[in-house]
TrEMBL record:
The keyword tRNA processing applies. The lineage of its organism: Eukaryota, Viridiplantae, Streptophyta, Embryophyta, Tracheophyta. Residues 1-32, 37-56 are annotated as: Disordered. It is an enzyme of class 2 (transferase). It catalyses: a uridine in tRNA + S-adenosyl-L-methionine = a 3-[(3S)-3-amino-3-carboxypropyl]uridine in tRNA + S-methyl-5'-thioadenosine + H(+). GO terms for biological process: tRNA processing. One of its GO terms (molecular function) is tRNA-uridine aminocarboxypropyltransferase activity. This is tRNA-uridine aminocarboxypropyltransferase. It comes from Aquilegia coerulea (Rocky mountain columbine). Its EC number is 2.5.1.25. Residues 154-382 form the DTW domain. The keyword Transmembrane helix does not apply. Residues 1-14 have a biased composition (Polar residues).
Amino acid sequence: MLSSTTRTFITKCTSSSPSSSSSTFRNQTKMDLRTTFRVRHSRSSSSSPSREDCFVDSKEGDTITTVSLQEWQGWGTTSQLPSMVVDIIEDMKDLEKNMDSQMNFGGIGGKLKGNFKVQEDKKHRATYQALNDSEKKLQFFSARQIACRLLGSKGYLCQKCWLALEDCMCSKVIPSSLWHGMRFWLYMHPKDFLRQNNTGKLLWQTFGVQAATLCIYGISEHEEVMWNAFEHAGKDMVWCLYPNKNALTKSVQDIVFHPEGFDAHQPKTNGAEPLNFILIDGTWNNSAAMFRRLERAQLVWGEEDLPCISLTTLGASSMHRLRPQPSWDRTCTAAAAIGLLSELHLHPAFNSHGLDNQADMLEDSVDALLEALTSRRLRMGRSITRRERHKGDVC
Ligand SMILES: [Zn+2]
């Protein structure tokens, strides 16, 4: 049987997480397939190309690990390569030189391994501790997570679908146009970046990166783009899908939309801003901290809260078919987006934009991901049932 090195695919960077562990309530917009498709660490033999073959360039005798702008953008973003990520990669290269020991992400989970890992752990913890401000700590934490994932996934994951190359599902995704009057923002925790069972990525795989834009928590190059867009759009055009316990949470029916400049059958006209919907793409535990960061809306728009909406159905109908799959969490990010599209379609102001069909297209992508992940588990001889006991493996 074909078997590849098993990995959870998450580089372990646990020591300095600033995330809140609070989970007093459940954010309906997040979660992914991790609880089901958590891959247990194991050391199986590998038929995949070795990491060293995949991502290490040799130049003038030195081993140099790099991430190019093109490669960065290939993972699903149009932003510049974050400067702090570049700095951290440079630091890791320096450490590699000083130690005369090659960094190794081999084997399982895209994790750093061996002596290099030990030394790098010491170094990054010291750097983190020395930072005296929480904003800098968060940015460092996020950038290091991203740097590790970029290096550890190189040559192993398909850039478009974030699955192992042998599991690539790209041919199963049918690109679709999202109604030009709306735009999704996937506000993603760095630990969910390049996670195979993440479902937020399905939004831009299906609708494109302009219609569904990745914004990684704590990556300033991403957050600035997002906030600039929100500021330009105006507060009335920004909604966060989140049950804010401190404010009156509204429903889709409360959205007031002024359709000037929009026509269902015409391209967006100049000056017409789309409705922006933020989906928080992280674990329950991380979502509270992520939402608090979004509350910097107060800096942009004054004292008022970030406008939030909750779904009334949570896309129950669209996810119904998936229920037999015990591994699927009904509240995954893509399900939230499907639910939002479905509920918007029932709103009189939006019912002529084909949002129901767009929900179906996204659901097809969800099905394709589920199938790919299921096939992988079966191929590896693993159960596809929920395995709670591995819950801690990848978080
Ligand atoms: Zn692919």
